[in-house]
Amino acid sequence: MSRVFVNGGGRFDGEKIVHLDLKGAPFKVSYYSKLFPLLSKLGATGLLIEYEDMFPYSGSLLGNVPAYNAYSLMDIRTILTSAKACNLTVIPLIQTFGHMEFILKLKEFKDLREISKYPPVICPTHKNTLGLIMDMVDQIVRAHPDMDKLHIGSDEVWHLAECPRCKQFIHANNLTPEQLFLKHVTRVVKNINKRYPKLRVLMWDDHFRTMLVEDLNKSKIGSLVEPVIWKYAVNVEEDLHPQIWELYAKVFPKVWIASAFKGATGSKQYLSNATHYIENHKSWLNIVDNYKSVIKFEGICLTGWQRYDHFAVLCELLPVSLPTLGMCLRLLSGSNNYLIGNSPELYEILHCLEAPISAKCDYYGSDVLDIVVKFHFLMDSTKYALNTLRQDITVHNLQLKAIIQDINGFTGLLPELQNLNSSGRSKISAIRKYIDKFGDIAKESKDAELIQEVVSQREQLASSMDAFKKANIKAMLTLEKSNKEDLLIMKDPETLLKQRQKRNKENLVKISSSVTDQLLSISRQLADTTKRSADTLDTLVSSSDNVVGTQEELKVNSNVISQSGKLLAKYGRREFTDKILMFFAFTFFIACVFYIVQKRLF
């Protein structure tokens, strides 16, 4: 049983495993011989290595998976030898459900995706899924002859039971998506146990948190895996409430926990937030102290994510985060000094002249930290903030255009159109927020070029909103036309009866009301954008004395405001017109019903 004494310089007595994520900027093989002795001195007892496409998979099925710079089997043996020399156990991590884009992004594995457009999740009911996973497991086990634990991932399975095959499977077997998750995981683990009975299998816990204890016990998952309970917030207790620990105590004989030392505060971070990660570890120590009497804690995995997926940018590099990792490991080892940079022992290990966070250190790779700190101070400026806002505006504009394109080609049902509208309005709101922030910086700097850029951004937003509105009108007309055609097509009596039951007066009223509400919402947004454009023009007149042609631009934009006012008046009258159209549509509907009844009765 693990023992933790948080007060008075307590310690975590379980295994302390450092996670090495190789999905981006993987380390040279020569770096490991420098890194492992340092980790051992800091208090680590093992490594959780997530190879992904850096492992030298081979064979007819997996031969195309390794990256161009993947390790060789000789490299793997060198890494394992270096780890063993430092008394560090190695636990390989293989993704077997979610986060499998390193394989599913490849063309030859596209058919295995749960959703064809997105490669992170593998389909659990595809006939080739288990064979692929077991081929990976076999090759990993052969390359790690001394391993006694295997981590099978399985966190953040965003798309579960969404493909037609899985939907049919859970319907035929009367399963819930959660039960399908358990069925896949237990099938994988049972196959691993059959081939390698001495292996202990670990997996992430997040999908267990909301499951019923009956489902968990029925699947016998507690005898198959050791869950790794992960949470990277500064206050773990807020998210992992007592009910979760009571659930796990009933199902699992032993558990692991997972903290973070980098890669958990944002996908674009390049400098570690040491305060956040130290607080995360202190919170975990409190959790263990509170529940050590009801559940056994085997160890802790200190995760260091390199990037969030294969389509994301890099997070903090490991050499940059080593001081933070050192502080977290010393805290777990019982250091009395919780304050950042107040550990002489850490100074000595990292060869630091000052507090480690100041980058005045001399460990292998510390020059990278020094460069990144200088880069941070350089980029922490108005220019960097503006570039970030421009990037955010551009990304959201592209996403809004994609939504408009989907609405223009819309042929589905009203609820689907409403979902597209909700996404579009969300993007419009985000773009407006970013433009407002950009405008605040422009006003403060009194830079005429920046102010003019704000005007252009607002004009682009107004244009996108107009296109959004027109796309909605087109989609609603298409939807109404489809409804009318369905109504007028003569079918057998049974089909007609079903249509009359589905398309009654209330449905027509709802559709027409939805049209009106959407148009009014877009009109209000257009009015708000117009007002903001006018405000920005006032600022432009008062602050850009050096800009030539201000009067001409003001005149052009005044015409835009005038035309927008006319558009607002026009769409204000549209509500009345819609009510008249609704009345005629209802009258037409009654006439059709009367005509059909008359034909059938007389």
From TrEMBL:
Gene3D superfamilies: Glycosidases (3.20.20.80)
Cellular component GO terms held in the UniProt record: membrane
Sec20 C-terminal domain location: 512-601
SUPFAM superfamilies: (Trans)glycosidases
TM helices/strands, residue ranges: 580-597
Uppermost EC category: hydrolase
Domain named Glycoside hydrolase family 20 catalytic: residues: 36-212
Compartmental location: Membrane
Membrane topology value: Single-pass type IV membrane protein
GO biological process, one term: carbohydrate metabolic process
Protein's name in the database: beta-N-acetylhexosaminidase
